[in-house]
Amino acid sequence: MSELSAVLAKAAVVWVVVDDRPWPLWVAVDDGTLYAVTGGGEQPLPQLPAQVELVLRTKDTHERVGPVPARAERINPAGEDWARVTDILLAARQAVPTEELRDRWAADSVVWAIIADPETPVPQANRDQPSDARPPQPTAATTARWRPKHLTALRRPRSGN
To answer: Could you tell me where the beta strands, DSSP code E, fall in 19-149?
Structure first.
């Protein structure tokens, strides 16, 4: 088993980079292939190009791994792989899977197979590398006080009285 396959086998969430923006994506893993359901009430994700980059975290140390090149393929509901892939997704889902869910996916969602080459060398985690965290978006929301009102009511009893 390659180093990348070992990281992928333990993945539950990956980040798929689309148009220089990382999108978190819940996935089910089977034999080194990541499967995901998007749209139609499921997790949001834009249309994937044929070539994407993945960013993963190691399960034990949570270090960043990637970007790793991968290819994305849309699974056709009328195709021969649909039943096998949706069985994998339903088995990985924590909610009680139902046949209605598979029908909803076929009608309203997109099922993706994301395949990374297992021979791709895994980039070594660099602890000095920025986290890729983005600053919050500007907003008009504000608070009237500098701290919650309930904190002002808490006072220490005076000693010495």
So the answer is: 21-26, 28-30, 33-38, 51-57, 64-75, 110-116
Could you give the CA distance from residue 102 to residue 110 in angstroms, rounded to a whole number? 11
The length of the chain, given as a count of residues? 161
Instruction: Write out the two tokens for 111.
Output: 């099922």
Beta bridge partners of 24: 15
Torsions phi, psi of 108, nearest 5? Answer: -120, -15
What are the per-10-residue average pLDDT scores of the chain (161 residues)? 67 82 87 87 89 80 76 91 89 77 89 83 63 72 64 62 57
What predicted TM-score, i.e. pTM, was given to this entire model? 0.71
Residue 7's closest CA among 61, 49, 52? 61
3-8 — which CB contacts under 8 Å span 24+ positions? 3/121, 3/122, 4/68, 4/116, 4/117, 4/118, 4/119, 4/120, 4/121, 4/122, 5/32, 5/118, 7/56, 7/58, 7/59, 7/65, 7/122, 8/32, 8/34, 8/56, 8/116
